[in-house]
Amino acid sequence: MIELFVNFVLFTMLVLTALAIVRIDRLFAVVMLSGVFSLLSALLFVTLDAVDVAFTEAAVGAGISTVLMLSTIALTKPVQKKPRHNALVPLIVVGVTGATLIYGTLDMPAFGAKDTPAQNHVAALYLERTPTDIDVPNAVTGILASYRGFDTLGETGVVFTAGIGVLLLLSGLARRREEEGEEQ
Amino acid sequence: MSELFDLRFLADHAHYFLFIVLMMTGLYIVVDKTNLVKKIVGLNIFQVSVFMFYISIGKVSGGTAPILPMDDKFHVDTEAMAGIAYSNPLPHVLILTAIVVGIATTSLGLALIVRIREAFDTIDEEDITHIEQDMTREDNAKHGNAMGGMA
């Protein structure tokens, strides 16, 4: 019962943060609030028993992505303009999408149920065999690095590609700025 | 749809509904706001809500984090394991991968925004559309006749 209460308090704070992000025009405040959002979601991950996900989210979501966004607004403009299009259309789009998704969740098993398809497939096997196969106490590490090591290898490939992309996009930024300065 | 008025059913599914509310807030930011940095923030909110939804599928009520007990020789203590309910570790692994891939794509998007600002001197979507329309109009005025009235 107390768990449910904690979850709902966290949800309220998450929704309030998200609404504040919708309302605020100064991008610095928006970026800071998105860091707050990540930290609150890390807390929610802890109550959902996903401690590894929680500290990755706290480090990556609240840490690295905040730094990246701050450096982006340092290179661009810090204030957003008011949109000039009709405000009603996005609300309708979001309302219809949300209603469809909620209709989809009606068929889902109850939150926290033990006999769902997700619990009855390989997960139990992983928990059972991790002590003998890998002998590390953290089952998540066992799956990440051993049972599903190829997933992690593929992830490395994606991160490498994205890194090359960022380097190609931003290389020569300072040089081009200097040249522009000389022309003016 | 009659189950929507059953309290027990609502309590079992309330988490999913709340994740979707958060998701839709992110989607609203992406669709409504024209500033590109804010759109990326909206995408991040959407993404984290999907992560929470996915993790919640692996939650077992009364369960604990999937970290196994150890004996005094630093091996997993299989006897102490018996009788403890663990939440499903598989969604955790998949979402760990997704978080790292998410930050990679976010950084790529932000780098694109920096380049867009360099080329257009603005990061507002509507401004960029106007500039592009002006450029097309200029092109038409210059080369329209040679292209047969269209460019």
From TrEMBL, chain A:
Q: What is this protein called?
A: Cation:proton antiporter
* InterPro entries, sorted: CPA3_Na-H_Antiporter_A, MrpA_C/MbhD, MrpA_C/MbhE
Location, primary (coarse class): membrane
Q: Which organism is it from?
A: Amylibacter marinus
Q: Which UniProt keywords are listed?
A: Cell membrane, Membrane, Transmembrane, Transmembrane helix, Transport
- Subcellular localization, as worded in the UniProt entry: Cell membrane
- State whether keyword Phosphoprotein applies: no
Q: Where is the signal peptide?
A: none
Which residues does the UniProt record annotate as the domain MrpA C-terminal/MbhE?
Answer: 110-171
Instruction: Please indicate which superkingdom the organism of origin belongs to.
Output: Bacteria
Query: Domain MrpA C-terminal/MbhD: where?
Result: 13-76
Record has Membrane as a keyword: yes
Q: How does it sit in the membrane?
A: Multi-pass membrane protein
**Parts of the chain that traverse the membrane:** 6-22, 27-48, 54-75, 87-106, 156-174
UniProtKB/TrEMBL annotation, chain B:
Q: Name one Pfam family in it.
A: Oxidored_q2
The record's section on InterPro entries has: CPA3_antiporter_subunitC, NUOK/Mnh_C1-like
User: Per the database entry, which stretches of residues form a coiled coil?
Assistant: none
Query: Which UniProt keywords are present, listed alphabetically?
Result: Cell membrane, Membrane, Transmembrane, Transmembrane helix
| Membrane topology annotation | Multi-pass membrane protein
Q: What is its main location?
A: membrane
- Its protein name is Na+/H+ antiporter subunit C
Tell me which species this is from: Amylibacter marinus
